[in-house]
Structure of FAD-dependent oxidoreductase:
Amino acid sequence: MAELLHEMDGTDSGIDGPKRITVIGAGIAGLVAAYELERLGHHVQVIEASHEIGGRIHTHRFPGGGGQAGPFAELGAMRIPAGHRLTMHYIAELGLQNQVREFRTLFSDAAAYLPGPSGFLRVRDAHETLVGEFAARVPGRPYRENTLLFGAWLEASIRAIAPRPYYERLRSEIDVELLNLIDHIDLTPYRCGSAGNRIDLHAFFADHPQVRSFCPPRLERFLDDVLDETSSTIVRLRNGMDALPQRVASRIRGRISTGHEVVGIQVRDDGVTLRIRQGIRTLSKTCDYVVCTIPFTVLRRMRLTGFDQNKLDIVQQTKYWPATKVAFHCREPFWEKDGISGGASFTGGHVRQTYYPPAEGDPAFGAVLLASYSIGPDADALGRLSEVERNGIITRELSVIHPELREPGMVLGVAGRAWGARRWSWGAATVRWGQEASLREAERREAARPQKGLFFAGEHCSSKPAWIEGAIESAIDVAHEIQWYRPRANRVFAAAARLSRSGEPA
């Protein structure tokens, strides 16, 4: 799709010539949509409610010394599966490929932790406990060692990634039919880890796509995220993920206005009227075309008129997961003395996941520990707390495995973001786990369906919700749609003109 748009760049400004387009939202979807629409010859303005660009890509930089920036934490999107071709395409096109580095994820470091029945286990030592627990609850005939190892690590991955209530429903769906199929496949090539005591789930499912058809619908969609998050081919940007939206914004010629909050949208036959709050003033702006990229959680708090009922229904019903991230600026990367060189621990409790970003800056400025990454009810529970209460719970839970956190002067600063409580997002990402493929696609199409001159983009309008890839995919789609869009009045006029030229009565 990106290649198609680029081929058209400069050769055609679409039906009826260049269009004037207002984009709501300066997240990655809005910025890419503006960038591509300008490349197609259109005139674009971007308006953003907050005072920063990037949306749910948010890199927080802790202070260093002498006015220099210290280490940073990704409080929003932090990783890109290498198979997300659109995102990787833009990274290359924007000259960021020299910043691409490996992202080490859950269970990728043998010294990282996960909870066991009587305390925390190291990843390198967890297999016997995990297999024993899994085998004890699997009914039916005895399975081969590799099959049980497969099931144990699949269950551990689901437990680490899914919110707790969702995990309880999912674990029962690693069922007998799936295990019977796995038991006939040689899993030896997929054993990984220094002692070969884990299974590379991502590689296995890539080589055996037919296995997915035996997964229940609730598990099948969730597997996409499990496999992406535990893949060995995930990347990051060395100097911060915010380089991506900043680089796109630098290529946009039109104005990007922050602090412009849209509070109402009226769709009319001849355009779209926006009610925009700027400080204490609220103004009206009539636009020929509008691309709305903000989350539906924000949109449904606005006054919306001229929308059809099906569109209002999808705006109201689209579900978003909350997410909360809390990062500690530490005096030193103390986890390295514990043998952990990167990756993440599944710490459970309120903390859920703990990541160990590489300490690549000046050692004098310390290092960052992404102390807690939670989604769903756990994220909401943390997000409702005061900063002092939240930091206290995280420190108390995490110091069980990292007692260094209690050392005086170890924690130099804390930064966090509760996306479910943030007024510009009211959620972290759309989640369509548990839905059959046909229903997911129907909801995606309805989310992306325009209302006359009002178009929609964002990860919630894509086939890859919750990922940068989805936001970019939707931006390319909407640029293509606007490129060839003709208002109904123009279509009627053009048809009448054709009939007139042919000598038939109009």
Remarks:
- The longest strand covers residues 367-375.
- Residues 2-54+244-318+428-490 form a domain with the FAD/NAD(P)-binding domain fold (CATH 3.50.50.60).
